[in-house]
Amino acid sequence: MKTISRCLSLLASALLAVPLAHAAGSGYHVVKTVTLGGDGGFDYLNQDPDSGYLYITRGTHLMVVDVNAGKLVNDITGLAGIHGTAFANGKAYISEGGANKVTVVDTKTFAKVAEIAVGMNPDGILYEAVSKRIFTFNGRSNDATAIDVATGKVVGTVALGGKPEAASADEKGMLYVNVENKNELVAFDAKTLQVKAHYPLTGCESPSGQAMDVAHARLFAVCDGGVMAVADAASGKVVASVKIGNGPDAARFDPATGYAFSSNGQSGTLTVAHEDGPDQYTVLDNVETARGARTLELDLKTHQVFVVTADYQPVTPSADNPQPRPTPVPGSFRLIVLGR
Known about the structure:
Elements: H1 2-23, E1 29-35, E2 45-47, E3 54-57, E4 62-66, E5 71-76, E6 82-88, E7 91-96, E8 101-106, E9 112-117, E10 122-128, E11 133-138, E12 143-148, E13 153-159, E14 164-169, E15 174-179, E16 184-189, E17 195-200, E18 210-213, E19 218-223, E20 227-232, E21 238-243, E22 248-254, E23 259-264, E24 269-277, E25 280-288, E26 296-298, E27 305-309, E28 334-339
Antiparallel strand pairs: 1-28, 2-3, 3-4, 4-5, 6-7, 7-8, 8-9, 10-11, 11-12, 12-13, 14-15, 15-16, 16-17, 18-19, 19-20, 20-21, 22-23, 23-24, 24-25, 26-27, 27-28
């Protein structure tokens, strides 16, 4: 009886430990802020897995930042409407939306080594390791372009049926991309370039950022209205809906901690949710960052999260421009680093 009683006591303690851990939060907080300055807006942040440098797209130029040193390593100029960066074989592939091409840069010298014509207004971009291809997701031509990294040649195009945003790879040769204007998820084979399915993202308006828990085949799509939709990659079914902040534009998942992240530009917060199970999630924190910090990157080695923003000048709506885009205050662009 004593043994049974002791086992029951230990079980009760273990069950109680889960909510207590959640109650303590994730521990994420702002570690430091680095003022980078420079002109232009901003879009994706992407980390080079080899150097650890952070590549930040700024419209007409790309800033390469050493986060540990808190300094700018290089500023690659002469670009047009850039959005994101992907990495493969010592090269950085930059989606140049304003020129309908990908610019390729050597990650050691930062010299431009190639330009590759792709679809119209390439936005999201990633490297898919099974096919050894770079994929751009082209907002105006509603398709994806596949580039063979060995030859630097375009090997095909995938019609997506709508405006693509961010995408994820499952490490088995499948790609999943958010289609913003259809509120859906498109799955296609990275080798054959055949579309396998169009899945409705139920309860998700205008999906933009996306991340994936590869081990559990779960996709995280951040949506308008402060929602992160969690979908089963195998069936496309939305299995959970997580409350996040407003104005999200990026998501990441950390397999080591089970944390899913959303950067929320309107709310000025970083939502941290814990994956209690593949279909169950608990929001641990909405960490204050800064208004406008809508995109993010996650360092899988240090578990630090990076967001960027700037101060903005007041705007006045007019009849010709009822929703004017805010203009950044010169010199105010900054990197915010969050850690545990």
